[in-house]
Input
Amino acid sequence: MNYSRKELITTDATMNQMRNSIHILASFMEKNEVSNVRERLRIMGHNIAKTYVRYWKPTETVLISNLKDVITTIYQKVLNSTITVEIDELENFVKVQDSKCALCKYQYDDITIAGCEIILGMVAEIISQISNNSSDSSSILLDPLEVSESQAYGNKTCVQVFKYKLKERS
Amino acid sequence: MGAFQWLMKKITKAFGRSTNALFYTLLYREILKEVNNITKNEKESLILLREVGRRAAYESCERHSNIFKFMPGSPKKVLDYFEILWVVVFGRELEDHSYEEIPREGSKYNDYLLKINRCPICADYGKDSEDTFKFSKLKDNDTEGLACGLCGMLEAVANFILKIRRNDYRIQIVEQSCIAKGGESLQILCKIYDYKEWQELINARTHERKSLGVSFEEIVDEEEIVQETKLDIIDKIQDVISIDKLEEYLDEPLEGVKERVSDIIREKLSMEPDHFFDYFRNYEDDMIRIIGFLGIHLLNEYGGLLEKAFKNEWLAKVFGYVFKQLKQMTLLFIPLDVIRDYNELLVSFLDGLAPLEMVENVKLFTGKDTITYLFEGAQLALENLGIEFTELKDNIWEELKKEREDGLISSETSTIDKTREKVPQIINIFQDVLMIFTDILTLPIRVLISESHYGLKTAINSVISEEEGLYGSIKERFDSIFDQIEEIRK
Output
């Protein structure tokens, strides 16, 4: 009997080749005149999240009080990354700094796009999926904003920025 | 499983960048979907996904080329080590699988069919609404399946090993049966081609890709000849020390090892063993230095860890000081009798292989000479890797002394500063006094090491059992260490 997706959650896989694959894919997209490569990568992340939450989610409710912990858990459990999270409650920004990004490591000459656009899309969607299924009206929805720094751009770490809003307001 | 096979798998797993396997599988699925979004043709998408996987793995291999130099250099052996390839590419154990050898007439090598009953790439494929790549749309049954990208990766790694080991054969790895496509198991067909046949296959693949109606940048020829470099002596040694051979050597007594070394020298270097060793006649000390030199370079082989560490000036310095200290301490702690015993082992090894004069010269070395030469060789290698021994101070404390950024000496030196200036010399004196005491205090340790050494020689035959003996216990402990490393890295 083959593996189930649920079983895969308990094991790890090496990302080195997949990380390179993303760069090759992005380059292939540009070569074939896909104009919205960044958006496509985020959509990949969204799709991953939609499937992923059926097999695992960090919590049942995401509130402003546990947002940091939820994000930290997602990065740790899904990507094996230990991150730093900053929340700007004035501007409603969430800034995640990952010094060992699973999808970015090298800077390429031919294309300047960060593999972690996928992560940006995925994390935002996991949280939004949880909140959409939650009855708590103060649940948080997360939107991907930008990858402001990336090892793919030559920076030392990757910084992914999200914008959050309350479910009730939206 | 052989010791080196086990070690390679552990190292690869412990030091690769891993994520959760479900994330890996879903990301793989999304890459295929995006390719299909461009081609709008399922068959073409699978051809391109294989190419994406092949290029991605080749890029990784190029970055860590040194580690592959230790892998076996013949196609059949590469396939024997398929489990390692799987771990290198996928980062997880190959479970529940079997091989079938399919005879191929007129060919030097047979084909191999590998059946893998559990495929993580296909796990539950089709159960979620995001699994939108439809295999049912494939009109041609001869196409590969979902694991074609993985096959591209495996093929690239296998052929990279053969290229780097300067072998003229290449392996084609194709998915024959796919669970997501309705097959009972993942079946991978491995075919071995000579260089000419392989070139034809590559040309046909390039032609097929170009006819797809999408642009896929053609890359530089991966088959270009590996340039001879200054480090070719290491390559030559690595031709000899590959993991499969080392496993065989470990199982054989000295005479067997000598026979094998002779065969390898004849086969790989096309010369008689005494002829080969004759190169080192009257340069026996250099031969021992080379052993020290290679020891350090071999340590550096996995991902150039030492070299990378030494790029940090402080780490390089600290390692340099530790090395200098070790050089001094080794002779303090290891009794010369023990070292002499290993010298005798070297003499027994050379006896019959090397010219008589050389054997006689090696017999003249004292234990202290051998250790000194080994350390000299090792120091040379460490210099190669980035430690500037000439810049190291007498002791590490001097490094801690802060200097002004402009390099000038202050005109207003206080008494405290003047005293501080003398601290390194004071420490040196303390250090030397301490070394004298240590010298005396190590006597019982030397006796213990001597006793253990001779005791070990007697005991060694009874403790090499993999399940219950020392080897098994050490392996278990290393298993635990690697697990801890993996945990820490998370």
Summary: Chain A has five helices and five strands. The longest strand of chain A covers residues 140-149. The beta strands of chain A are 12-14, 83-88, 93-98, 140-149, 158-166.
